[in-house]
Each structure stands twice: as structure tokens, then as C-alpha cells.
């Protein structure tokens, strides 16, 4: 089968299309014929060797995908060949076939296309945990969504609105702000607007934003603290700037701020939180109240270009690769 292989870490062009043997599902695993792979900022960081966990080479990137169940490994119950599912694993999805632990399978409503199903797991579970599990957002509260036209951003805007929150959206271009507005953002601002801190605070009634989903990091992290309301909750989800941020704990004391880290991979091990998120998201997707936003779609052979476009901020919604 065809697969993307990474033999040394580096920029996206280290990825190569190769002919490799198809994987066999071990006990507890399922093999899928891959239809669509969702590309996350984390995949780009992993190929660069800059992710939270160490990347071991050689390997095939791709953690989030949708496909048709092809072979069911020993001991797996309740999964039928021919079924379309979404899957969340560690790596291996940028290929024509991929294996995943059955625990990583996520049922998807019939109404979703393969690309929409591949765009769903990471962004929507992360958005839910940011807004609810850790963020404890309440209907009527304001939330700040950064990179609002991206994969996580579009999921966060839609989900926040579906949960009754008011959204201030930041993004780098007017076109990206249009996307956020179409998804229901109440106030949109260019992330380089010189008066952004003041404007965000004013948008949320002049007292700052009670809940902030922080994905940019670096100097923007300090700005998030400045935009936060008294007793505000800042959920640290990402570091797209790839810059270091400073945190002075005393500043948190002054306004009773809370800063909470969120990593989906470790939260997936929390059964109760995952089941609650799955139930809430399942209903919202099944009724069409949230619709995974599929961005640009690339062929497997163009994977390096897809990764580079994501890194260069050229994409909106979820970048999809179709093997
Ligand atoms: P996106 O589709 O949102 O793409 C990344 C976006 O980040 C860009 O489009 C850009 O939007 C914004 N950005 C801001 N500053 C930079 C920069 N210096 N370089 C590049 N991009 C920048 O990607 P994802 O939805 O996959 O991820 C969004 C963020 O959320 C990432 O930081 C990612 O690591 C994090 N994340 C974390 C998870 C977790 O478990 N903790 C799970 C999922 C995502 P703009 O041009 O509008 O600024």
C-alpha cells in the first residue's frame, strides 16, 4: 500500500510517499481502509520533533481519520467490517490502511461524510473539554476564541454558540473573521488590531472575558491574561506561535485568575469526561447543530504541501488528506 513515511524529523518536506506492507491488526485492534485523514497542528509539530511527546522515526504520521472497517482483530466486540467510523490513534493514518486500538474508534452519525468524520474527533472533543469540562462555561457567558477560523477555532465557535455562550473571535485576516461570523461569533476582531485588548474587554461588557481558549502562546499568552475578567479562566490548549511564554504567578493572584492546561490525549483516558463529551457532541452532530468544517483537501502525495499550508496559516477549517 502507499503510505507517508518520515525517516528524519524536520520541516514538512521530510515526508515521503512510499510503498510499504499494509499493517495487520493485533489483538484488540481494528484495521480500517482509510478514506480521509484530519491534519492537526500537532501532526506538524510531531514531524518537526516539537510535540509534547517524543516522535520516534521512522514513522507514518496521522492520528485522526475516518474509514471503513476492513479487518477486526482478536477480542474486539461490536465492530463490523463495512462500517464507517472515525478513529483517534497515535500515528499511522497517512496511508491506505491503518490499524487502531478499538478503544480509539468513535461512532459517527450517518449524516457525516468521510471528510467531516475525519474533521470531528480532535477538534470537537478538545473544544468541548475547553468550554465545559475544564472551562466550566455557562450559557450567557462570554468566551474568547483565538485562531477562530482554524480547525479547533471553528469547532469552538460553533460549540460555544450551541451551548449558549457569547463568542469574541480573533483571527489574522478579514476572510477568516467572516468564517467565524458565519458560524455565529458575536464579535470578531483582527488579532493584530492595535486596540485588541481594550476592544475584547469592551465586547464582554467592559469587565473582560470570563473564559479564554488560549492556543497561540508566546507574547499572546500575556495578552490573554490582560483580556481576562476578574476570576477569569484561561485554558491553555496550544502554542501555535512556537514561542516561550512567561507566567508571573503573582499576576494571577491580583485578579484571582485560573490558568488550566488541556491536553486531549491525557483527557481521553478519563472515561467519565470522555463519555460526557461524547454524549453531548453526539447529539449536537446528529441534529446538525454543529457541523465539522472541512477545509482544503489534498491527495496523499501532496501531504507535505498540506502540512506546510497549515503551518503558513493558509488554511481554514480542518485540513483533510485523502489517500
Ligand atoms: P488550526 O487549523 O487552528 O491552524 C493553526 C492556526 O493557528 C493558524 O491558522 C493561525 O490562525 C493560528 N496561528 C496563530 N499564530 C500562529 C503562528 N505563529 N504560526 C502558525 N499559526 C498560527 O490548527 P488546529 O486546530 O490543529 O490547532 C489549533 C491550536 O490548538 C494549535 O495550537 C494546536 O496545537 C492546539 N490544539 C491542542 C490540542 C490539545 O489537546 N491541547 C488539541 C487540538 C489542537 P490565524 O491566522 O487566524 O492566527
How is the quaternary structure best described?
Answer: single chain
| Helix/sheet category | alpha/beta
CATH superfamily of the largest domain: Medium-chain alcohol dehydrogenases, catalytic domain
Residue runs with pLDDT of under 50 for 5 or more positions:
none
Looking at the overall shape, the CATH architecture of the largest domain is Alpha-Beta Complex
Portion of residues within helices: 25-40%
Supply the number of helical segments. Answer: 11
Alpha carbon gyration radius: 19 Å
Q: Give the domain tally.
A: 2
What proportion strand?
25-35%
Number of beta-strand segments: 15
Give a quick summary of the entry.
The chain has helices at residues 41-48, 114-118, 121-133, 151-162, 174-182, 196-203, 219-227, 249-254, 264-267, 271-286, 303-311; strands spanning 2-6, 15-19, 29-39, 64-72, 84-88, 97-101, 105-107, 142-145, 166-171, 187-190, 209-214, 228-236, 258-261, 294-299, 318-322.
Amino acid at each position: 500500500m502507499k503510505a507517508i513515511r518520515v525517516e528524519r524529523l524536520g520541516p514538512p518536506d521530510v515526508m515521503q510517499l512510499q510503498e510499504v506492507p499494509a499493517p495487520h491488526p493485533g489483538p484488540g485492534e481494528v484495521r480500517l481502509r482509510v478514506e480521509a485523514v484530519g491534519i492537526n497542528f500537532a501532526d506538524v509539530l510531531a514531524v518537526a520533533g516539537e510535540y509534547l511527546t517524543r516522535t520516534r522515526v521512522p514513522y507514518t504520521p496521522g492520528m485522526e481519520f475516518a474509514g471503513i472497517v476492513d479487518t477486526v482483530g482478536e477480542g474486539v466486540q461490536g465492530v463490523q467490517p463495512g462500517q464507517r467510523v472515525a478513529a483517534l490513534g497515535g500515528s499511522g493514518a497517512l496511508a491506505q490502511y491503518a490499524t487502531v486500538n478499538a478503544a480509539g474508534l468513535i461512532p459517527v452519525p450517518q449524516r457525516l461524510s468521510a471528510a467531516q468524520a475525519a474533521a470531528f474527533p480532535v477538534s470537537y472533543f478538545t473544544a468541548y473539554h475547553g468550554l465545559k469540562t475544564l472551562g466550566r462555561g455557562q450559557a450567557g457567558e462570554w468566551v474568547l476564541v483565538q485562531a477562530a477560523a482554524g480547525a479547533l477555532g471553528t469547532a469552538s465557535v460553533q460549540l460555544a454558540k450551541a451551548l449558549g455562550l457569547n463568542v469574541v473571535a480573533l483571527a489574522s485576516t478579514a476572510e477568516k473573521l467572516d468564517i467565524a461570523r458565519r458560524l455565529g461569533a458575536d464579535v470578531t476582531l483582527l488579532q493584530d488590531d492595535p486596540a485588541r485588548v481594550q476592544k475584547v474587554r469592551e465586547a464582554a461588557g467592559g469587565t473582560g472575558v470570563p473564559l479564554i481558549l488560549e492556543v497561540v502562546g508566546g507574547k499572546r499568552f500575556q495578552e490573554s491574561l490582560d483580556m481576562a475578567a476578574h476570576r477569569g479562566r484561561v485554558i491553555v490548549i496550544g502554542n501555535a506561535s512556537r514561542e516561550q511564554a512567561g507566567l508571573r504567578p503573582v499576576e494571577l493572584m491580583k485578579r484571582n485568575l485560573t490558568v488550566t492546561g488541556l491536553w486531549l490525549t491525557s483527557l481521553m483516558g478519563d472515561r467519565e469526561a470522555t463519555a460526557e463529551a461524547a454524549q453531548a457532541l453526539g447529539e449536537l452532530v446528529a441534529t446538525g447543530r454543529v457541523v465539522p468544517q472541512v477545509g482544503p483537501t489534498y491527495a496523499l502525495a501532496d501531504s507535505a504541501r498540506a502540512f506546510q499550508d497549515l503551518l503558513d496559516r493558509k488554511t481554514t477549517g480542518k485540513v483533510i488528506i485523502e489517500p
